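Late entry, evening session. Most of the bench is empty. Finally got around to the prediction I had been postponing all week. Sequence below, unchanged from the version circulated by S.P.
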Amino acid sequence: MPRFRIDDLEDLYREVKLYRSLQHSSRMIPMRDSFGVRESNETFRRNSLQGAQVRVAAQLRSAGFNDAEEFERALFDFLASFQDVAVVIAMELLAQFEQVLQREHTRYQDGSAVAALYQALRQTRAKEYYAQVVTPRARPARSGLNPSCIDTCRVNSR
């Protein structure tokens, strides 16, 4: 897997996220109310924002980034690369699955393969296990059953 500029920078990511949150909240909360009275936490919010800004700027520089925007571009590049690789992997898996489906489709065109499968399934105890779990025409237990099944089946508790 290729290395990215953001590898091993989880703590920096959290700090940048906190800084962005503080920036956003400082823009959303007015410094004065409608009567012109100063907001009581203004100094605390301003100091928190300035402290985060200094801390984040130092961490960004030590990680090789000029500013938060450059770091966020690196994040975007990583996500785009991740998505590209994920699509390639998904397409490869779908192609493999398609091959399996084609083989099974060909296999079950033969009546003897279908008969052998049916015979193997008949020898299982599936009906017995099913009968232990579902009782016909009983009231449903409180289990979140499908409402269409209310008068016809009930899941037994063990």
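Two things to note before I forget:
The chain has a mean pLDDT of 83.
The radius of gyration is 31 Å.
Will write this up properly tomorrow.
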